[in-house]
Design goal:
Jelly Rolls, mainly beta, single chain, 2 helices
Length: 109
């Protein structure tokens, strides 16, 4: 469960469940402290976001403790997914900058 405690962000969930009728499709929504919206990202979905304001605070409620050996990522600009982030030159972490496409990663679900 994701919400924004301060500022604003664009939050995205991508279905990565093998065999799902919506595999590779995405949904995005703006979350802000002002609008109070939250996004539930179910198991089998990848999650990503872009901040829209400086000093944005993102709050998560998770179903299990963080497991570093299960941590993975998908390229933000994967052409097969086609998320419209509304930006062309994001500032990325090293992990995000080198993330594979969904085809390269394969789905653990």
């Amino acid at each position: 469960l994701v919400r924004c405690g301060r500022g604003a962000l664009y939050d995205v969930a991508v279905d990565i469940r093998s065999g799902s009728a919506t595999f590779g499709q995405w949904f995005g929504v703006e979350l802000s402290a002002e609008n109070g919206r939250q996004l539930l990202v179910p198991a089998g979905f990848a999650h990503g976001f872009v901040t829209l304001q400086d000093d944005t605070e993102i709050c998560y409620k998770c179903t299990a403790p963080y497991a570093p050996d299960c941590d993975a990522g998908i390229a933000w600009d994967d052409p097969d997914i086609g998320v419209d982030w509304g930006i062309s030159e994001p500032v990325l972490s090293e992990k995000d900058a080198t993330a594979p496409t969904l085809k390269e990663l394969g789905s653990p679900f």
